[in-house]
UniProtKB/TrEMBL annotation:
One of its GO terms (molecular function) is RNA binding. The keyword Lyase does not apply. It comes from Thermoactinomyces intermedius. It comes from the Bacteria. One of its GO terms (cellular component) is ribonucleoprotein complex. This is YlxQ family RNA-binding protein. The keyword Phosphoprotein does not apply.
Length: 99
């Protein structure tokens, strides 16, 4: 498992991860989401909805991995979209994701 996915598992255990489209949208609207991670194999309508919401609320959006990889990293079956609610974790993900 790579460092990005290991960090995602750590953030999940720390309680700083919200997953699922509706829950992530709610976190974006409330201002709690510091970063949104979207699976590269997300459907176009999900991608547009999440991308537009992130743009509207100035939340960084990072495309990474597949839905299966993201789900496995947080101990779930599959996850298309994940919100990180901690600024420190968000900064670490952006640093890793830009490599």
């Amino acid at each position: 498992m790579n460092k990005f996915l290991q960090l995602l598992g750590l953030a999940m255990r720390a309680g700083k991860v919200v997953s699922g489209e509706e829950w992530v949208i709610r976190e974006i609207r409330s201002g709690k989401a510091q970063l949104v991670i979207l699976a590269e194999d997300a459907k176009k309508n999900t991608e547009k909805k999440v991308s537009d919401k992130c743009d509207s609320y100035n939340v960084p959006l990072l495309r990474y991995g597949t839905r299966k990889e993201l789900g496995n990293a947080i101990g779930k079956e599959t996850r298309v979209v994940i919100a990180i609610t901690d600024r420190g974790f968000a900064w670490s993900f952006m640093k890793l994701g830009s490599k």
